[in-house]
Amino acid sequence: MIKKTVCAVLASVITALSVAGCGGQIDEFVTVSNVNQSSVSVAEGFFQAVFTGDEELFAACYPDSFKTFTDDEGNTVDMHEVFEEYCSLSDPDYTYLGASLSAYNDYDADHGYDFPPLAEDIAALHHTSVELIEAAQIVKLRLNFQNADNERLTTEIYILVYKSEAAWYVFELQNSDAEFAV
To answer: Is 2-173 in CATH node 3.10.450.50?
Structure first.
């Protein structure tokens, strides 16, 4: 299910690139040392990692509880395999230039979202305690690329991120047609 969602979202990015116009200002690239400082940093860092091939930055977008969890059979998540799966969906003919924030919504009742069930999902899938999930946001980013003809192309994408123990992490990509609750 996750793989299908990832494929659909990243495929829509590539499709949208062919019809997108020029974007505005691009934020500075994030680093491993600052990727977890804000919701926007971890969202931008995730796409930066995927489109630039930065596996260390990619791993930093996920909590240790996810990366080191061992199931009853002794299996752990192969972060290299997850990273390669995401990277395989990118188009080498496009150079990633960076991202900028378009908008974000807190994932809370004030914005029409039911946070407690999401916190339970995050805790279950990222192998942590629900009490440690402090907040979540849907972040809408504008991704900027340059093609082989030196044309600048942009697309917008949504990603769900969450805060745990004062750090922000990626949870999942959202559909490309996601709308913010009003």
So the answer is: yes
